[in-house]
Backbone:
């Protein structure tokens, strides 16, 4: 109850600030909350918007699948082999640190303008946190838990499925949560810079046409989706870290 | 009464045969060679209860891991039930570790059922055996709890139940009662004796409790400070039907006294006091 009240108060404060800012900078730089919400309603009822949403959603969904499945497989492999983990740990950290936008021209050369490039770009953003947290999750399993698995004569497949994965699950889910957020970021950035459809493309077009209300409306919608999605994932994550 | 005893005669049946086992490992950090065990010989008759007692750091746990097949010795060999143990835990061997090895993501009941499920036992059989094992360790009322909701001693009992439910023929126990208070230890020890009698299993127990070793064992091996060797083997001479009441026997004091005589200098050496 109290929390909901806080949330409402926060939203109100943001809206007020927004309106104030709008009065200062004027409609060339910002649209008012009201105009923006009118634009949101207009967007939601237009067919072109939903076509772009589905283009982004398709690319995002594929990027998520590749990030999670690929990240889990690679992270597990690196976590299981101490040697491979030691070798790849610094490389992974370096790869995570580089601004991936610098790779986008290369990706475009590889995949051309379209779905594949967006998926690839989303994946190179999303996969690293999944790899790193899965690897660390597996490496941090206490040695006695691994020994207990050996003492119960589990096969390697049984050990992975029934001991290593559940033991590392809280960290794996944290990695996946960050991975999903970054995959969305990557997909949208890809659309912003070079693409012919999708939400990012729509956003950059509205900027080029100086259509401030539409720009703001898309931003607000993206913001809302990111917050709601992020909070839902965080809730699952927290529950797992507290152990159910 | 002469409490010293020889190993079983050569032609007697042997459940576990450890011969000439030495183990050297490279210390992390310094890179120095550390000799943990030096020429261990040990033969256990089927159904025997044998305890190993020794100062801390003498390689007792390493010995148990070698017997279990979790660690390969640098020298010597281990034979269980006529087969050499080679880098894999043999069927019929159950081990309880010194540290808490319960699985935090599973309930107490699921922890205990874990091994049976992996072996594909049927549901009714699993239920019967898990319920029995939980009653045995006194955790029947905690079946639905998760390990983090339990005390350290209770978690250790979960691990004991998880191992015993598989009805191993050789039970390896690495200071399993270390986390328990004195009274619970005595009761658990008594229950362990009952289970040992009923199943006919062979038990190899690592302990640092003189009275625990004296009360539970048929024979006790006293180990030296590192590198661990057996410096004495004592036979308790207790009947198979026994319980914690043996602590009242006059012979009990003589046993712990003799163990301490052997251990005193070794313990001082292991903590760096000149004897």
Residues:
């Amino acid at each position: 109850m109290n929390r909901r009240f806080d949330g409402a108060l926060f939203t109100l404060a943001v809206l007020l600030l927004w309106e104030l800012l709008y009065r200062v900078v004027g409609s060339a730089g910002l649209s008012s909350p009201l105009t923006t919400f009118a634009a949101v309603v207009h967007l939601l009822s237009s067919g072109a918007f939903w076509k772009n949403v589905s283009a982004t959603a398709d690319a995002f969904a594929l990027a998520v699948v590749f990030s999670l499945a690929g990240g889990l497989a690679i992270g597990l492999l690196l976590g299981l082999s101490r040697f491979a983990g030691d070798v790849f740990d610094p490389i992974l950290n370096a790869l995570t640190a580089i601004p991936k936008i610098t790779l986008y021209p290369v990706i475009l050369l590889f995949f051309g303008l379209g779905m594949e490039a967006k998926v690839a770009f989303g994946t190179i953003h999303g996969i690293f946190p999944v790899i790193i947290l899965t690897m660390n999750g597996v490496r941090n399993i206490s040695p006695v838990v691994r020994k207990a698995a050996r003492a119960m004569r589990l096969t390697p497949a049984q050990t992975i499925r029934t001991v290593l994965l559940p033991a590392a699950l809280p960290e794996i889910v944290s990695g996946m949560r960050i991975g999903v957020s970054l995959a969305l970021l990557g997909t949208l950035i890809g659309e912003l810079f070079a693409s012919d459809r999708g939400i990012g493309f729509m956003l950059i077009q509205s900027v080029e046409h100086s259509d401030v209300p539409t720009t703001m409306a898309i931003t607000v919608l993206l913001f809302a989706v990111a917050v709601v999605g992020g909070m839902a994932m965080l809730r699952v994550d927290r529950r797992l870290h507290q152990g159910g | 009464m002469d409490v010293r005893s020889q190993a079983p005669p050569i032609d007697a049946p042997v459940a576990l045969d450890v011969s000439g086992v030495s183990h050297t490992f490279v210390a992390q950090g310094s890179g120095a060679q550390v000799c943990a065990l030096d020429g261990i010989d040990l033969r256990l008759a089927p159904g025997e209860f044998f305890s190993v007692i020794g100062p801390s750091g003498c390689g007792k746990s390493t010995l148990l891991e070698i017997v279990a097949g979790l660690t390969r010795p640098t020298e010597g060999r281990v034979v269980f039930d006529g087969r050499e143990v080679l880098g894999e835990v043999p069927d019929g061997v159950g081990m309880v570790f010194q540290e808490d090895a319960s699985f935090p993501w599973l309930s107490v009941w699921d922890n205990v059922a874990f091994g049976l499920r992996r072996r594909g036992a049927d549901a009714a059989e699993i239920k019967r055996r898990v319920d029995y094992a939980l009653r045995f360790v006194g955790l029947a009322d905690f079946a639905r709890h998760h390990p983090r909701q339990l005390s350290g001693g209770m978690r250790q009992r979960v691990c004991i139940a998880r191992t015993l439910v598989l009805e191993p023929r050789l039970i390896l126990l690495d200071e399993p009662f270390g986390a328990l208070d004195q009274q619970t230890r005595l009761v658990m020890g008594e229950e362990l004796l009952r289970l040992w009698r009923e199943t006919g299993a062979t038990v190899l127990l690592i302990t640092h409790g003189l009275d625990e070793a004296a009360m539970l064992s048929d024979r006790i091996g006293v180990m030296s400070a590192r590198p661990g060797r057996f410096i004495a083997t004592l036979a308790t001479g207790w009947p198979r039907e026994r319980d914690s009441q043996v602590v009242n026997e006059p012979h009990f004091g003589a046993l712990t006294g003799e163990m301490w005589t052997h251990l005193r200098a070794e313990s001082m050496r292991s903590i760096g006091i000149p004897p």
Observations:
- The first helix of chain B runs from residue 60 to 68.
- The first strand of chain B starts at residue 16 and ends at 26.
